[in-house]
Write a structure and sequence with these properties.
The structure holds three protein chains of three kinds. Chain A is α/β, with parallel strands linked by helices. Helix content of chain A is 34%, strand content 25%. Chain A has an eight-stranded mixed sheet with strand order 8-9-10-3-11-12-14-13, sandwiched between helices. In chain A, α4 packs across α5 (160-173). Chain B is mainly α. Chain B has a domain at 97-282: MetI-like fold. Chain B has helices spanning 9-37, 42-46, 55-64, 70-82, 96-132, 136-150, 153-168, 181-197, 200-217, 220-227, 232-267, 272-282, 285-313. In chain B, α1 (9-37) runs antiparallel to α13 (285-313). The longest helix of chain B is centred in the middle third of the chain and has 37 residues, at 96-132. The radius of gyration of chain B is 24 Å and the shape is flat. By secondary structure, chain C is mostly helical. Classes of the chains: A alpha/beta, B mainly alpha, C mainly alpha. At the B-C interface, α1, α6, α7, α9 and α11 of B face α5, α6, α9, α10 and α11 of C.
Chain lengths: 369, 320, 297
């Protein structure tokens, strides 16, 4: 495996709920690696912290206290740096008996520091596309103007006319019909799918090293969703861009991801090559992943006319994080032998096969990791 | 980022102009209704009839060219106004409109100056609070704005006058003839300062701009702008600054004109407000009627400007 | 450095926390101060109405004019005729209290009716009411009031009718906006589908359940407006006339002595105006933040 382009180590992003006087541990010790040219898919229910992980990596978390710990190492051709370098100087975490009592953060100081670290990275090295593309594009500006702005900001193309030509080329590459006409359109006159194509064009036009796609199909019609997935797959082949793909939709992940990380309750519970993690007959798998797969309709399940399995219980509330395994309350595979462990100790992320890690007490291999 | 290409703005503009005309017609109807309903038959004076309301008098008025019915009177009155004849002042006997034009300029200086001052104070506070959330300093600024907006303008005027007399040795500010150039300038600036700071305008401009700006800063497209490394202000400017500022300024024009009545009274400023006060004292309704119409025209004009800016900036406006 | 402290034991049901625990401190301060002002105004109004004043408000004492506060016998000092300022301040509330209530009643009742017509009926009534709103918004209120004064007579109740009418558009827009929002959530259609008659839907489900907080807030802000208008007019000499006290004419009367250094006789009523208007405004805004959650997230 190559040296990763993006390496996230033990990332912690917390929010504060004023109403409940409590910290929401949205991302709680996440480690991920994305190798150059690879697509890493993060999958999980809403509230699992997958989007917040992506936003943290791009330095776009705006609520307080936000990122409070970890490393985000970016190693691209142009930039090599830890995007959270020096964060510990701005944050103080007070713990007692392993329970976090308070977080202090010099928000403004860190923001200033983070902006300098992000200079030349955000938009240029790391580009992003979002869900609900119609609200993600500036409604007061034409599609063309927004593309031209990106091109002139981040590429060597600085001339107005040249940037315009480049923008139109990009609109063509994302298969927007009559790009010259669309160039002068405002987002409000365009369909959601069209807006997402423009959004993708805008992100790629900066020629970034890493593309973060945060739920790129959410908020689109079902037929449009598959078209956007097709487009992303095609662009992956054409450009070979490294991608961090976030989706709650396993079928999207299945189509596009080389490797997968399954998130639950702010942590990664399973990670490995896509084929391995999603293999229908796989035995070594986290109970949550199994449940997640059982809840998705597959061709085979439809043929057998079997019922879909809902996951019992509710998504973990990341305020009252249990002492033991985060999935313990909803898990249906707890055995008497390991129950005590599950209830009281958080399992480590252990390697069950080369490159395949699972955070579960069921797999003794995890104990050694 | 370029300003967007010209869109069918002219059609929207035509519509706004029509709405403005319709509203000005309504304004005249309201003024007419007040005069029509008022005791003492003020319309009679305006229409140059001489007698009180009675059957006999009505006949005589018709003979004098004063219509009998209310709509006839309205038409006659409206026709005269279109010719620029707002009647003559009861007190001075002079025609109202030229007098209004003469003092209206002074009121324009006063209101526009104080508007500029209000924006000068309000915009930095609003932008700062919207961008950084509520910190202690911002809370203090907010409370300060609240207090300033609740200070009675008339009393605040005396305080400022007192300070200028005793601290800067300026006298007499209220009645005197200022000899030195600097004194003339202060004589000019102090009322502007008072109207600009001690009216509800200040806190409302701050509040509106802050609310709108923080709403826009939380929009998805601002996050996109940050994600692509573009300056946030460039994307937030139109919806988060330009539109709310023009909105609130246009909405505050009537309040400034109303505040001018008091400030001009305190400082003996020879403007429309003081004229309105004098006219109300003397029950000189041709004058106060003219002032009401001119003031309403100002308000509608400000509103029209705001609509123009909004249409030019917002691509959706011309489609809706 | 800002700190985010974990509560003693994290609470599960956030919605069951009492309002005052979920609120921001500043909003509570606003509302607390506002309620204090309202209580003081109410108590003073009753004292004035019953004639239970600390002093005879008209008794002159030529030997003790423009006295400073805490002068023996006169807690808040005296005015230019040696009359007790405290008694006159309390009595001055009579000048705006009932007229202010009249103005609020007019704008709340008529504004609600217009708002319901515009929001519930929609179509032409909406267009006409929007036009009417814009029409009323065209006049500087003080100028309109002076026009009415010049045409009719300088009577505070006439003035407050104008204030009430010009206050209608805000409330009409608010109600119409609420109804538009409820329509978006299909609330109204659902109510009709349940077979509820229109008047039940309007009065109970729209006005009472969904608009009462907003109406109370607007009424509070309306009182601040009424006080501002009354004091301004009294200052200009069109309101309550001497020797009957109003805060506005007290400022005006004291102003003649202001530049000679006798601040107090006009500053005392001015501070009363300031504190009272501030109280009503902060109460309105604070309630708005608490009940309607205006301050973003």
């Amino acid at each position: 495996m190559d040296a990763p382009l993006l390496a996230i180590e033990n990332l912690r992003t917390y929010f504060y709920s004023r109403a409940r006087r409590a910290l929401i541990r949205s991302v709680d010790g996440v480690s991920l690696h994305v190798a150059p040219g690879e697509t890493l898919g993060i999958v999980g229910e809403s509230g699992s912290g997958k989007s917040v992980t992506a936003l943290s990596a791009a330095g776009l978390v705006s609520a307080a206290p936000g990122v409070i710990g970890g490393r985000i190492e970016l190693r691209s051709r142009q930039a090599r740096r830890n995007l959270l370098d020096g964060l510990e100087r701005y944050v103080r975490v007070k713990e007692r008996d392993g329970r976090i009592m308070a977080v202090e953060k010099d928000d403004r100081g860190w923001r200033r520091r983070a902006e300098t670290l992000m200079k030349g990275v955000r938009g240029k090295e790391i580009a992003m596309i979002f869900q609900n593309p119609r609200s993600a594009l500036n409604p007061y500006s034409t599609i063309g103007a927004q593309l031209v702005e990106t091109i002139r900001l981040h590429t060597s193309v600085k001339g107005e006319g040249e940037a315009r030509e480049r923008a139109i080329q990009w609109l063509e590459r994302v298969r927007i019909d009559s790009p010259r006409l669309r160039f002068d359109n405002f987002p409000f006159g365009m369909s959601g799918g069209m807006c997402q194509r423009a959004m993708i064009a805008m992100a790629l036009s900066a020629e970034p090293s890493l593309l973060i796609a945060d739920e790129p199909t959410t908020g689109l019609d079902a037929t449009i969703q598959s078209r956007i997935v097709d487009l992303l797959a095609q662009l992956k082949i054409e450009t070979g861009i490294t991608t961090l793909l976030i989706s709650h939709d396993i079928s999207v992940i299945q189509r596009l991801a080389d490797r997968i990380a399954v998130m639950y309750g702010g942590t990664v519970v399973e990670t490995g090559r896509a084929a391995e993690v999603l293999a229908p007959q796989a035995q070594l798998r986290h109970p949550y992943t199994a449940a997640l797969l059982a809840s998705v309709p597959s061709a085979e399940a439809i043929r057998r006319k079997s019922y879909l399995q809902a996951i019992e219980g509710e998504v973990l509330d990341t305020i009252d994080v249990p002492r033991g395994c985060r999935f313990y309350g909803r898990c249906n595979r707890v055995t008497e032998a390991i129950r005590e462990n599950c209830a009281s100790l958080e399992p480590p992320l252990g390697e069950v096969a080369p490159g395949h890690k699972v955070r579960c007490w069921l797999y003794p291999a995890s104990g050694k990791a | 980022m370029k300003f967007a290409a010209v869109r069918p703005v002219s059609r929207v503009l035509a519509r706004e102009l029509a709405v403005t005309a319709l509203l000005l017609l309504g304004v005249s109807a309201v003024v007419f209704a007040i005069l029509y309903l008022a005791p003492g038959d003020p319309l009679n004076v305006l229409l140059e009839g001489q007698s009180p309301r009675s059957e006999l008098a009505l006949g005589m008025r018709e003979a004098l060219g004063v219509p009998r019915t209310w709509y006839g009177q309205y038409a006659a009155w409206f026709g005269k106004m279109l010719q620029g004849n707002f009647g003559n002042s009861i007190r001075t006997g002079l025609p109202v409109l030229p007098e209004l034009a003469r003092v209206g300029v002074n009121t324009l200086y006063l209101t526009l100056g104080s508007l500029a001052l209000t924006l000068l104070i309000a915009v930095p506070i609003a932008v700062h609070t919207a961008a950084h959330g509520d910190t202690a300093g911002n809370t203090a600024a907010t409370i300060g704005a609240y207090i300033l907006s609740a200070v009675p303008v008339f009393w605040f005027g005396y305080i400022v006058v007192y300070v200028f007399i005793h601290k800067f040795g300026m006298f007499p500010l209220i009645s005197g003839t200022a000899t030195k150039q600097a004194q003339a300038w202060l004589y000019f600036l102090v009322p502007i300062f008072v109207l600009g700071t001690a009216s509800g305008t200040l806190s409302e401009v701050i509040r509106h701009l802050r609310e709108e700006l923080s709403r826009v800063l939380a929009e998805d497209y601002i996050r996109t702008a940050r994600a692509k490394g573009a300056p946030v202000w460039r994307h937030a400017f139109k919806e988060g600054f330009l539109i709310p500022v023009t909105e609130i300024v246009s909405a505050k024009i009537p309040f400034l004109l109303g505040g001018a009545v008091i400030v001009e009274q305190v400082f003996n400023w020879p403007g429309m407000g003081r004229m309105a006060w004098q006219a109300a004292q003397d029950r000189d309704y041709p004058v106060i009627m003219g002032i009401a119409l001119v003031a309403a025209a100002f308000v509608r004009f400000g509103n029209l400007l705001q609509r123009v800016v909004f249409t030019a900036v917002n691509p959706r406006a011309s489609k809706e | 450095m800002r700190s985010y402290v974990q509560g003693p034991a994290s609470v599960d049901e956030s919605s069951q926390l009492p309002l005052w625990r979920r609120a921001e401190t500043m909003d509570l301060v606003y509302v607390g101060y506002g309620l204090l002002v309202v209580a003081l105004v109410l108590a003073s109004y009753l004292l004035g109405a019953l004639g239970w004043l600390p002093h005879d408000p008209q008794a002159m004492n030529v030997g003790l004019i423009n006295a400073a506060p805490f002068t023996p016998g006169h807690l808040l000092g005296t005015d230019f005729l040696g009359r007790d300022l405290q008694a006159r301040l309390i009595l001055g509330i009579q000048a705006y209290f009932l007229p202010g209530l009249l103005a609020i009643t007019i704008s709340v009742v008529a504004g609600s009716v217009l708002g319901i017509l515009a929001g519930y009926r929609g179509g032409w009534s909406d267009t006409i009411i929007t036009y009417f709103d814009n029409l009323l918004d065209s006049f500087p209120r003080l100028v309109l009031i002076l026009l009415v004064i010049a045409s009719f007579k300088p009577d505070i109740y006439y003035v407050m009718v104008v204030v009430g009418i010009t206050g209608m558009p805000v409330i009409a827009n608010l109600i119409a906006g609420k109804i538009a929002f409820l329509r978006q959530t299909n609330f109204i259609e659902a109510a009709h589908a349940l077979g509820l008659p229109a008047h039940t839907v309007i009065l109970k489900h729209i006005l009472w359940f969904n608009c009462r907080a907003a109406l109370v807030i607007q009424a509070t802000l309306g009182m601040a407006e009424a006080i501002l208008v009354e004091t301004s007019l009294s200052y200009l000499g069109f309101g309550v006339q001497e020797p009957t006290p109003s805060w506005g004419n007290m400022v005006q009367a004291g102003a003649n002595y202001f530049l000679q250094g006798n601040f107090w006789p006009s500053t005392a009523p001015a501070l009363a105006i300031l504190a009272t208007i501030l109280g009503f405004q902060l109460l309105g805004d604070g309630l708005n933040n608490l009940l309607e959650g205006k301050r973003g997230k």
